[in-house]
Each structure stands twice: as C-alpha cells, then as structure tokens.
Specification:
Number of strands: 0
Structural class: mainly alpha
Order of helices and strands: HHHHHHHHH
Mean pLDDT: 79
Shape: elongated
Radius of gyration: 46 Å
Helix content: 55-70%
C-alpha cells in the first residue's frame, strides 16, 4: 500500500479506520502499513485518542423548564421594536465594520480625485461660457442657410414698408 501521507488522503483514511467504515481488505492493508510507518502510526494513535475522548464525553442534560425559558426569551425579543433588533445585530451580531472602513476610505479618496479634476464652485451657473457656445454653434451653422434667411427677412421688410407719397404722407390718406 502506498503511504497515505504521500498520497494526501491520510486524514480521510485514519478517520475511516477508527470509525470502522473501511472494507476488510482496505483495513488490513492500512493496518499493515501502520505497523511499518511511524508517522502513520502516530496519526492513527492520535485519531484513536480523539474518538476515545468523544466516547467518554457525556452530553449535559437539558433542564425541564428549558422550553418554557426559550419561548419566554423569544417572546421578549419579538416585542422589541424592529429597529432595536437590527441595530443590536449590526453592533453585536452578523455585521462586521472592519470591511466597511477601507471601502469608505476608498470612496472618500475617489470623491477627492473627482473634485480635483472637476471642481465645482458654488453660486455659479453650470452652463458653458458664451464663447464656447458660440464656437460650437458656429461649427453647426450652414452658411447658405443663413444667407437665404437674411434674404427672406429683407424681402419681408420691403413688403411691410408703407408706401409714401412725394409729400411724405402715407398713400391713401
């Protein structure tokens, strides 16, 4: 048999040996190996000691009023406001503040970098300066379209102009 330590399955085999779950052929081969290998013999002896300690352990008896006390504690906890239960569980229970601190520090650092690269001054408009708007608009304007619009405005102005007589009074008066 190959040494269980070299194979990497010594824990499984030693537990199976002491629990009696090996086949008779596997158990015989492992016991022969344990007689020859000092390290495996030490592991087997330690595992047997653990099982002996577990066999010697006596389970404490449960008091007769255990159920009554348990239900009373559950009822007291159920009467507490939900926010107190959650707050206590955050402080003392399932939540750990340790992972939150580095995340919070990273968020503050990112916010600081954002402010350095994109400064915000209070009381000013967030619109772009007029020069930027004019430059952007000038790039978008079609020159021919502007010329046609100006010609149309001139033509409309000529139609709206009152016809005057040579004396300066409006015609038809």
């Amino acid at each position: 048999m190959r040494c269980p330590i070299e194979a990497g399955n010594e824990k499984t085999l030693m537990v199976a040996l002491t629990a009696g779950t090996l086949t008779p052929a596997e158990q015989e081969a492992l016991e022969r190996h344990i007689d020859e290998c000092a390290e495996c013999r030490r592991l087997a002896d330690e595992q047997k000691a653990v099982w002996s300690a577990l066999d010697a352990w006596t389970v404490p008896t449960v008091s007769e009023d255990f159920d009554r006390k348990l239900h009373a504690r559950i009822a007291v906890e159920a009467r507490r406001p939900w926010w107190k239960r959650e707050w206590d569980s955050l402080l003392h229970g399932r939540f750990s503040w340790k992972p939150v601190l580095p995340v919070a520090a990273a968020c503050v650092a990112l916010f600081g970098v954002f402010l350095v690269h994109n400064p915000v001054s209070l009381g000013t408009s967030r619109t772009a300066p007029a020069a930027v708007i004019q430059t952007q608009d000038a790039q978008k304007v079609d020159v021919d379209q502007v010329e046609r619009a100006l010609d149309d405005i001139d033509m409309l102005n000529q139609l709206d102009a009152p016809v005057t007589t040579p004396h300066g009074s409006p015609a038809g008066s």
